[in-house]
Design a protein that fits this description.
The chain is α/β, with parallel strands linked by helices and 195 residues long. The protein has a single domain, classed as Rossmann fold (3-Layer(aba) Sandwich). The strands form two sheets. A six-stranded mixed sheet has the order 4-3-2-5-6-7, sandwiched between helices. α3 links the parallel β5 and β6. It is globular, with a radius of gyration of 17 Å. The relative contact order is 0.20.
Length: 195
């Protein structure tokens, strides 16, 4: 790639008409970078108080892009780990699975301060289940950061940090979020137009 070429992560992509722009790739990048600095203050405080760096757990699949950009923007050391989660039926927008499936791949959590990172907090069902699991495994603190917090009256958990907030019922696509498994790798955020 020539240095004069546009950055493919932020250059415009053609999205189908049913995807309504919510936030550009540049706006996503700026908000995530600011959030990374803010979380860095928390992480530095944890390290100063405990002598151990915090652990950041990415909820896969959707959280992977946000997680990577967030940790790269954080000025303090944070150890990465991963948890494969599934709360919705594959290939069906907004259709809940019967239960939240979780497969945690992380070092022992006993006494650790943990940051759970996901693409979106919708009902909060996934974040609540993961937070409960980590508490059962001895985490000293579990906090969460999401790219989008969809504020709902029936939400069961509120993330500590979010890059964006949204009050509407629309489903999201882009930056890890999907339209029936499509457009996850688009760097902008879109609302999916019903129908």
């Amino acid at each position: 790639m020539n240095l004069q070429d546009p950055d493919p992560r932020t250059s415009a992509r053609t999205a189908p008409a049913h995807l309504v722009p919510f936030a550009s790739a540049e706006e996503v990048r700026l908000r995530v970078a600011r959030l990374g600095v803010e979380i860095g203050t928390w992480a530095a405080g944890v390290t100063a108080a405990t002598g151990r760096q915090p652990l950041a757990v990415c909820l896969l699949r959707g959280g992977v892009f946000f997680f990577s950009d967030l940790l790269l923007s954080c000025p303090a050391s944070i150890e990465p780990a991963f948890c494969r989660c599934r709360a919705y039926r594959p290939g069906e927008n907004g259709v809940l699975a019967d239960s939240v499936e979780m497969a945690l791949d992380a070092p022992p959590l006993e006494g650790r301060h943990v940051l759970v990172v996901d693409d979106i907090c919708d009902s909060g069902r996934t974040l609540a289940a993961v937070t409960r699991l980590m508490g059962e495994q001895g985490a000293a603190e579990v906090v969460s950061a999401v790219c989008v917090h969809r504020r709902r009256s029936d939400g069961v958990i509120t993330p500590r940090w979010s890059a964006f907030e949204h009050d509407g019922p629309e489903w999201f696509a882009g930056y890890g979020m999907e339209d029936a498994s499509h457009f996850m790798n688009y760097p902008s955020l879109y609302l999916i137009r019903p129908g």
